[in-house]
C-alpha cells in the first residue's frame, strides 16, 4: 500500500531536475539529475541517491516536520516508478568531491 499519491509536475520539470508533487502535502521534492549544478539550500532537507553510478540530489521544498516520512516515500516512489531502480541507495553524504580553492600567485 502506497503512503501517498505522488506524481511528476511536468510543467516545473526540465532536463536538469524533476519536481515530485504529493497530493496529501504542500511539500514538493526536487530531484536534481545534474548535481554538479546543484547548490544545497540549508533551509531544506537534502538526500543524495546513486542511480547506477549517476548521482542525484533530492531536496525538499515547503516542508514541515509532518512531511519527513513523505519526503523519503517520495524518493522511493521516484526511484521505483521513474528511474526503475527500487533499490537505489540514498544517503545524507554529498557524493561530490569537496570544493577546494587554489590561489595562484
- Report on the biggest sheet: 6 strands, antiparallel
- Helix count from the secondary structure assignment: 1
Low-confidence stretches: none
- Rg (C-alpha, Å): 15 Å
Structural class: alpha+beta
What general form does the structure show? Answer: globular
Strand order of the largest sheet: 1-2-3-5-4-6
Percent helix among the residues?
10-25%
Query: What is the arithmetic mean of pLDDT?
Result: 89
How much strand? 25-35%
SSE order? EEEEEHE
Structure description:
With 105 residues, the protein is α+β, with helices and mostly antiparallel strands. It has one domain. The protein is 14% helix and 30% strand. It contains one helix and six strands, in the order βββββαβ. It has one helix at residues 68-82; strands spanning 6-8, 17-22, 28-32, 46-51, 54-61, 89-91. A six-stranded antiparallel β-sheet has the order 1-2-3-5-4-6, with helices on one face. The model has no long low-confidence stretch (mean pLDDT 89).
Distinctive features:
105 residues, alpha+beta, six-stranded antiparallel β-sheet, 1 helix, 6 strands
